Amino acid sequence: MTDQDRLIEMIMDEFKGLARHPRPSHHEKAVSDYLVNRLHALGVTDVIQDDVYNVIANVPATAGYEKAPLTLIQGHMDMVCVAKPGYPFDPLTSEIKLIREGNILHADHTSLGADDGAGVASALILLQLGVEHGPLRIIFTTDEETSMTGATHLDSRYIQDLDYIINVDSEELDVICMGSAGSCHTRFTRIINWGETADTMALHLQTHGFRGGHSGATIHQGKGNAIQAMAEALLDLRNAGIDYRLSSINGGDASNAIPADCDAIIVISPDNEGKVREVLHAWSEKFHRMFHGIEDQAELLIQPDEVPQRVFSASDTEMLVDLLCMLHSGIYVMNQTYANLPELSANIGTIQTTEEAVSFEYLPRSGEDDRLQELLQKLPLFAKLTGFAYEQGNAEPAWTVNTESKLAPIYEKAFEKITGRKPRTEAIHGGLETGRFYHLNPSADIISVGPNTHAIHSADESVELDSIAIMIQVIAETLKALK
Ligand SMILES: [Zn+2]
């Protein structure tokens, strides 16, 4: 048996252990207890389970490494549990059934949990390999996949004394992730002054078929935003001197998704129908020139609709369109270290009309906390100008790229030694637990790595077993070099 084969057997064993403990986010007690026992079984005596079920273990240095820097190896124990339609699967009680096909590991009709079982398994296996290392801390967090409860509630003292952090929750073997974005949920709401209108024609407008996508991963691709596009079309109507009132506007699925659809009902005078269609047609042509090759499937549909009982006041209609047009949706600034990496962006994600109010979500992200705060402090000004109420959640901190990292070149060298090729360094515009760690300890030198996983968060999730084995070898080599 080669080293690689032996490692893959060990990986399979750890995955089997994890698979027996259902671990959707917010239901981690069982897997947390299992991990405490597993660490004890591997001879680790200093193991702590905190009140949100994070598991924290301290592992003493091997002989000769007592003075080496303190290094954290960290992953999250929860997983996204999904099954194929019709497959009987209860995420709270069902085991994950593993299926190995050569080098590929996947589950039977469900997600696998390689995200982040691979990270957890790697840390456990490193303890079994007899590799040389300095003082180590191992942390398995909870609820990374929904609200990062584990990382947020983790006692800061487990982070503040660290020199190096290796987060094992990335998705590509050849990539060293060097940074992630912070973000903040915000909401703009305006109480509607409902009124009547003498106009007798209603049109249902739909911005439809936009590409959409994750606002962290794809905001730099220059896509259209179906909600903002609707507002821009409505602005063109106003600028053409056409009087109209909104009676509803709804669109988008989530604050962190670029909306693909938006529906609005407007009421106009029947005399203006021809002109409305003409202006909206011109708007569509302009849109397709601007988004040529990007949003070729997007369209603005116009259909007659039942005339609603009541409509927004003229000023509600005007102020909503103003605000949706004024708030930039897309990239504000690009990062200057990494190509295609946004530094500051924002997304209008959803909009709803209720009985009382119209409200929408706006989600700014940044790779640097001050930049995020700079934008956030301007948002209430837009709200004030347009008569909207503004609410803001807690900002998730960024993990800002450290161009002076000592850890990244050491990992790079170890990677080259094991694989014979150079890894790439990248940073992402999404959020990671490392943002929390960086916030608690900005002097910690952090990288995030991972094996080759595919279709994570879906029932087609899979992982390349040899890529986990290689990653473990590279981390082992890195620990040896951190002296
Ligand atoms: Zn993950």
From TrEMBL:
InterPro entries: Bact_exopeptidase_dim_dom, Peptidase_M20, Peptidase_M20_dimer, Peptidase_M20C. One of its GO terms (biological process) is proteolysis. Pfam families: M20_dimer, Peptidase_M20. Transmembrane segments: none annotated. Residues 208-286 form the Peptidase M20 dimerisation domain. Gene3D superfamilies: Zn peptidases (3.40.630.10). It comes from the Bacteria. GO terms for molecular function: metallodipeptidase activity. One of its GO terms (cellular component) is cytosol. This is Dipeptidase D. The lineage of its organism: Bacteria, Bacillati, Bacillota, Negativicutes, Veillonellales.
